[in-house]
Amino acid sequence: MALGSIPTFLLFISTFFFMVLGDDAVGNSVKYPLVVSTWPFKEAVKAAWKAVDGGLSAVDAVVEGCSTCEELRCDGTVGPGGSPDENGETTIDALVMNGVTMEVGAVAAMRYVKDGIRAARLVMQHTEHTLLVGEKASVFAISMGLPGPSNLSSSESIEKWTKWKENHCQPNFWKNVVPAGSCGPYHPKGKVDVSEECTKTNLMGVAELRSSHISPHNHDTISMTVIDKMGHVAVGTSTNGATYKIPGR
Ligand SMILES: *[C@@H]1O[C@H](CO)[C@@H](O)[C@H](O)[C@H]1NC(C)=O
């Protein structure tokens, strides 16, 4: 930006903020609550809005919103029945953060329990920990009252996985392993040549690969932010992870 245009720019910014604040003649009650979500997951936003507009906290509204997506299996990327791993199993990752206390609760690679975001809230509110994983997360969630153990597979996830197996387990997330073009078990490919790894062409290749990965077809999942009537912020996310991931990811 040319130096001369900075005052104009600042003027624009201050005008913009004035307009936003100008709408808010009566204080926070007018500006909040607020619900923002990734993707057009309207039912999730509606559920969060209903919760927060009815007086629930930002944390509880985030949980209601993300939980709705888990139930609806939004895009097949949230909740049970989607994104089979290499073993054909669906597992759940979720996180919630309270913006007032800065507490975080999360579960990862949780098996047999559908309610990811509720499990994350239980970790946050009833433990001194931040993250529980795998089968131990499931045991915790069930012991704290969530339903399970449940079968998280669906006919769609099993069908997807069967086709992937038939396609020699391609695509997958392995690298520098043998065998390259077929199903495992995989083994390290031996010594990776460092000088070859660092050639300009290889680095360019990685950069191109990464940028070509950014589109609605390769990232998904609900992430949600809520500001409640008190002006308190909470954020959360819930997903069943990457399709054909290596179990444990
Ligand atoms: C889980 O559900 C899937 C899909 O309906 C089914 O194919 C599979 O057999 C079930 N697994 C168990 C252990 O019941």
Structural summary, described in words:
Helix 3 (42-53) runs antiparallel to helix 4 and helix 4 (58-72) runs antiparallel to helix 5. Mean pLDDT is 86; it is low at 1-26. The two termini are 43 Å apart. This protein has a domain at 34-171 and 221-239. A six-stranded mixed β-sheet has the order 1-7-8-2-3-4. It has a two-stranded antiparallel sheet with strand order 5-6. It is built from nine helices and eight strands. It has helices at residues 6-22, 28-31, 42-53, 58-72, 116-126, 134-143, 155-166, 194-197, 200-212, and strands at 34-37, 92-98, 104-110, 131-133, 177-178, 187-188, 222-227, 233-239. The protein is an alpha+beta fold and 249 residues long. The structure holds 2-acetamido-2-deoxy-beta-D-glucopyranose (NAG). Its EC number is 3.4.19.5. GO terms for molecular function: beta-aspartyl-peptidase activity; hydrolase activity, acting on carbon-nitrogen (but not peptide) bonds, in linear amides.
Supply database-style keywords.
249 residues, two-stranded antiparallel ribbon, elongated, binds 2-acetamido-2-deoxy-beta-D-glucopyranose, signal
